[in-house]
Design brief:
The chain has helices at residues 4-11, 23-32, 49-59, 62-66, 70-82, 86-89, 129-140, 145-150; strands spanning 92-100, 105-114, 117-122. By secondary structure, it is α+β, with helices and mostly antiparallel strands. It has a three-stranded antiparallel beta sheet. The longest helix is centred in the middle third of the chain and has 13 residues, at 70-82.
Length: 151
Amino acid sequence: MANALDYVEKFGHLKFEQKGFTDVDNLVFSLLSYLDFSNTRINEDTLTLEEVGREFLMHNTFKEVSKKGVAQAGAYRMLEKVIDADRYRKIRVSDYIYNTNTRMMFSAVIFHLTKNLDYIAFEGTDEMISGGREDFELAHYLPVRSHIEAV
């Protein structure tokens, strides 16, 4: 069975100008938003995904990150792949924010894919207590705190 890591392996050599943005690219960038890049220089001078990724991997082990949840573990493995793939590694990243507390989960980052295409990724909820609380609120209230933060 093929997965997003296989996609990066197979098409990672193709720039977005050669192979347009796909649903799997959507998954790749969404998944990366689950990583806490707070201990990197992500918001300094619009660094590349490769630069931010290598810095992140220098400060975080898979074991540490995977304790935070399944999504974070998958995102870590994805980051290891994309920083070496021509399709992703030179993408500039900016405007990163990570805000989680007992009342909400919120993370966002902008990936600048091409001259005319930016992708804004928002972290979804996960299995943390704040994620469960927010899932409950989503079933009963709109907007929730993270929606307001996103705006």
